Fold this protein.
Amino acid sequence: VLIKGPAHAGKSRTAFETACVALPDYRLVTPRDRSALARLAAAEVATELDDPIVIWLDDLDRYLGAEGLDLAMLSAWARSGVSVKVLATIRLREHARLRTTPGEIGREILAVLNCAESIMLAAELRSEERSAAQELYYEEHFAGGLGEHLAAAHELVQKFDEGYDLCPEGYAVVQAAVDWRRAGLDRISSADLEHLYKDHLQQLRPLRPITAGDFQRGLAWATAIEGRTAALLVRDNDDEQSFRVSDYIVDYVERGGDA
Amino acid sequence: VTNGQAPATADLPNKTWERILGRVGPQDALQVGHTAYTHGNRHIAVRAWSQVILSGDAETAPQAAIYLGHLLAREGDTAGAREAYSKAITSGHPELAPQAANHLGMLLAEHGDVLGARAAYDQAITSGHLHATALAERNLGILIEQEGLAPARGTPPKEVSPDGLVCDRCGVANPGRARSCSHCGNALTESTAVALPQKPVTVLFYDVATPPLTQPDQQELHDAANRWRNHAQQVIERHGGTVAKYAGGGVMAVFGIPLLHEDDALRAARAAVELLVASAELNHRAEQDAWPSFRISIGISSGSGMVDEQALVLGETVNVAVRLQQAASAGEILISEGTYQLVHPAVTVESVRPVLLRGKLTPVSAWRLLTVDPGAMAHRRRVPVIPMVGREREFAFLNWTFQRVAAERTCHLVTVFGPGGVGKSRLIEEFRDQVKDQATVLAGHCLPYGESITFWPMVQLVRRAANAEATDPPKTVRAKLEVLVGDEQDHARIVPYLAQMLGVGPGGGPPSEIFWALRRLLEILAGERPLVVIIDDLHWAEQTLLDAIEYLADEARDVPILLVCMAREELLEHRRTWAGGKLNAHSISLPPLNDAEQDELISFLVRYRQLDQQARGVIARLAQGFPLYALEYVALLEDKLRPTAGQRVDVTDLAENLPAPATITALLAARLDHLPAEERRVIERAAVVGEQFMTAGVVALSPEAEPPAIETILETLLRQELIRPDRSPMSLLPVTEGGDSYRFRHVLIQETAYNRIAKEVRAELHERYATWLEQTAGPDRLSQFDELIGSHLGEAYRFRVELGFLTGGDRLLAQRAGERLAAAGHRAAARGNIELTQRLLSRAVELLPEGNPVWLEASLDRADALREAGQLEQATQVYRKVVEQATAADDQGVAMHARLGRLDVLAFSQPERMLLDGDRLVSQAIVLFVERGDDLGLAKAQRLKAYMDLAMGRAVAAERAAREAIELARSQGYEHLEAKVRRLLGIVLFWGPTPLDEVVAYASEALDWARVRGFPGLEAGALGLLARAAAMQGDFEHARQLNDHSHTLSSMVGERLTAAADSVSDGFVELLADDPATAEARLRVGYEALKGMVARALLLQGRDDEAEQLTRVCRAITAETQVDAQIRWRQLQAVILARRGDLERAEQLALEAVRRADDSEQPDTRAETRMDLAEVLRKAGHTEEAAKQVRGALKLYEAKGNQVAARKARNRLAMPTS
């Protein structure tokens, strides 16, 4: 099942809630990245677990490509004798890009996408949805989508934009992480971030030399939690020295800063 | 959004992609490539995947190769895709290699390479990988269904271990454990190459459609078909072919394995005709027994093929043969273009419509083979009747020997030696013509193969002497022999032996008796009149025949017999003592034609075709004195030109790119194939070194052999005329280090030897040779060898790329090659050798990683060279790329160099923009280069400044900038740049206020400087200046001579842009000489921008309308900042208007011209505008005012020293005012 929609439309939450309701006995397996997925497929974990499982592929684009999700994996799971569901989400932009990839590589991608039962999730809440939400969370004000609200997306964008003037170091750090993500890579290490942010900072602050403190300052700004739960840059749970950038910011930058 | 559609995301800038790629390992790079590809960013995708492949990472590199293969396949680059998939296959990755094999199979099947596709699927199937095997089996099933291919019969596939050896003799790959070749039995040695070599082969494919076996006597029919098949195999083997494989009911036979023959194609043609005859006999029998008939169709194709471990030939040649067979009707033989080229002098064919073969986009030429001349020899072309060229001494010697034989009634043996194609037969033909009225001439030739060929030439000449036809029954032949021998006393003994030799009498007599009978016959014939016996191709003779000829020479008594034999040097390899120790035997060695003779020959050959001198030069260079080669190359060129009749084609270019004629290649390939293995190895290694080589180089490439053994082998090759001593004074190394120097007898021998070597081995040998050169040269001499080392390393890398799977070491190899070539290229650039610079640096930038500092420098010099060669668009593109990369690498200096280069291009393409943007850029450049202490950059910037100052009429500033540029260029050792600025300075001085005497002094000094250092461009420029000065001083004859000389030099240098501008000097001289018609003709040759001067020439001839038209053009294309041109169109228009009576506007324009000229620092221009204004004023009746202007002009002319113009001004003043 593939849930597609704009960034922070609430795709992941919707998928998760639905899985909880529809597949209560399933074990949730979350591959950390493509190579973990490959290991999952090779090790036949599905049969070893002997439980029905949901393979959770949030941001499917991270799992497509070299050694990534392919038809062979899907058909192996289908034949494994254990009930395996694959639940994935993808941003619309990514979906459009991948779907139109030409040649044999495009054919391989499309073969996977076409296997999915796709569900489209709009960003905006329908009026009845909004009233229901309002009823449940009466203190909140749901201007945009639910997900957008929960992820403090507007506040993040605002902070990111303000960083241009208020904290160019942080702005540059986030930009570098966005580049990394847009190049198809997942977590960025602190060392790579420090190497790549310099270009952006140089452009923002051409007249001042870059010092060692700049990066630390920028990183602290970018990882500071804004609002309730979200930060521009989130530290990886398993590796303190690597980070992921908020998808909403990636999407925002790709749209050319049009929130 | 509601439709599920969203615009595709914008791509990242390449610079960002590249920075990221610089940080990641192979696994992430693989994904970056994937993402870039989904963004449609091909450049980054290729870059990323190449990075992964080059990393050699066992896990990710095969996947990257597959991705790259997909990308290239989609772009239609089949060869590239094939290469990429092959890389993945050779990786041996358990999953990806079979996957790649499947992809390769599909690609090949799509392009019609059925056998290749099948081999790839087989590979996937044997991998054992479940998914890949299933897919490959399905694909193979489809292929078999579509193509009708049945699994190969015969021996089961052999397993060849990776360390298997390739047979030296037949080229077949063998299993690793084998000690002798499984195909020809030859002993295998460790030193043999493992990779599969390419061989020129001819493939014959035939198919017999048997009738359905439903008759009651089907077993008999079946047996008959089998008998016929066995017979067919015998036919093929008798002609030297090998039945290699059965597929789809058809049979594939290969001619050229295990050993090549120069006439393999002809053998195949003969076999094919014989097969048809055999099938006709079978059908005759079938008809009698009321069976349905057998239908045979045959396809033949010649070309190169790769011989695999099962003696199977793979490649396009096989494919074409199969397809031609499929296209042939019953009883038809279709031959390919390649085969036709090899056999056409010996066969009759009908052209058929080009055959559209499945899997091919364009139809393929084909011929229907009808008959083969049974006595035809390999490659004998029907030579057009042309006089013999050269060979006077050899011809005289033959004549003298004949006269002596006739006068002294003795027997004499003359052997004419020479390599194939050198002209032995032509010489003998001429001699034969000369003596035919004084002697009986009988001729025969030896055959390369066949049954009962021992006495074949003798059989031929006896039959001719007896006038016995091939169709005569034995009885008639015997009767004719009786008549021939007459009533000699030995008559009863002679005739039976001769009959035995001719195959028309009972056998059993020993050879000695046949020798005797033959000798007696010749003595009888010579008794009547002198006898000349000619035997061609003696190198193919069996020992018995050689014995017979020597016996004749020794024993024939008191009769005038001249035995003339023709042979290649190979004869001495199997009969070292040929004709040795005989007083009545001589040998002539026929050398290639010398240059003058070859020229004369080519003139005859191309008489009916307009081939320019240059194209003839190319043919001469290719033929290297071998008349047959010249003949073949001219024929090939004419073939290429035929379809272009009526179109404009660059014949020289066509000639330069002619492939080696197939006939000659076959000849040489067969020759090398027959050499003993150790000799062939040495000649192959020498071929890797190059057309010229030294002993030490070959020794360095032959670690398995002792140096003295190599020397001995080289001497043997020398005796066999395959190589010759190189006596050119430019040896690579001193003799003490390099040993003796040699050169291939012909470049085609080198090419053929080189082509025999498998690519893998070539790569290794090139690298080994380059490393040896580096070590031998040592650090002090290394720079002298840069080009050579770089080329060898580059070749090594090229073959590794072609073979697939590159390692990190190979990447370093490419970088080493690139750096050496770049170093050599920079030196060529500093010397001003434009062509060499381009060649070296183009290769260097291909090899170096983009954006690397050496890459940047090399690209920059390459762009400069492109600009100077007039390839402005290409130069601009390269400059743009350099700016981009240098900016990304934060190298401002290189980026600025490139920007200046682009500005320089603008001077030619968009002068207005150049002058508008240039000032600011040049100022920035000067600041930057001063800051960085980059004197070369500063020199370039100052040169451009001088140029722009000149264009804007600021002669003094231009002079200052030019002088500074000269100093800077000199300090940096960039003589080429210095020469360019010196040339510019000459023009600045000429147009500026510098007195003419000083200009002349400057030009003379520049001329000397240019001559000493060898800068013909500057020499031409200086001569042009001196020409103008001479004209200004009234010495027109001298001026014209100087100009002529100048133009010759310009055209030599290849500076097209400068050469175009040279016509300015001509125009200048002729206008001063009052010869406007000649001035016009000369100026028209020049560049568009010269239209202004052409207009003046027209105006002076009274052709005002034409002049005005040109002036309009001039005005339209002139930038506001181009001071000189802005003045000139106004002057001219003013005069035109005045002549038409529009005096007011004329005066206005003329005054404007004077005003603008006065703003410049060009006295001659200022004077000229005044002279024009004077003419306008005179027409308007303002004679006083006009005279005043003329007087002003006169002063300026005198100050400059332009005596002729000054005289004209004085004359004007002296003219009556009316």
